[in-house]
């Protein structure tokens, strides 16, 4: 997420992600908040980002739906969804 977000806005973003996953029939099994970290490269003028790692249980067919919703969240700089075998 963008590093300058207030705690309230970050909490709302995380809540919205939880809602997207739940509505898609999945659930968050683990949430690991890493906090503010230096980015490997500048993204949208930001040298830092607020990192959060989720483990999800969700049907593979719903991944694209989640990705499409995350793309349009302005407060998220980058995201990566990885399928675990």
TrEMBL record:
The keyword Translocase does not apply. GO terms for molecular function: small ribosomal subunit rRNA binding; structural constituent of ribosome. InterPro entries: Ribosomal_bS6, Ribosomal_bS6_sf, Ribosomal_S6_plastid/chlpt, Transl_elong_EF1B/ribsomal_bS6. One of its GO terms (cellular component) is ribosome. The keyword Mitochondrion does not apply. Keywords: Ribonucleoprotein, Ribosomal protein. Pfam families: Ribosomal_S6. Transmembrane segments: none annotated. One of its GO terms (biological process) is translation. PANTHER family: MITOCHONDRIAL 28S RIBOSOMAL PROTEIN S6, SMALL RIBOSOMAL SUBUNIT PROTEIN BS6M. Belongs to the bacterial ribosomal protein bS6 family. This is Small ribosomal subunit protein bS6. It comes from Candidatus Dojkabacteria bacterium.
């Amino acid at each position: 997420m963008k590093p300058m977000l207030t705690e309230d806005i970050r909490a709302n973003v995380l809540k919205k992600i939880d809602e997207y996953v739940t509505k898609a029939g999945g659930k968050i099994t683990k949430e690991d908040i890493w906090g503010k970290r230096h980015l490997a490269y500048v993204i949208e003028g930001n040298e830092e980002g607020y990192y959060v790692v989720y483990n999800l249980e969700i049907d593979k067919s719903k991944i694209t739906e989640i990705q499409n919703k995350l793309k349009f969240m302005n407060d998220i700089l980058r995201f990566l969804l990885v399928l675990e075998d």
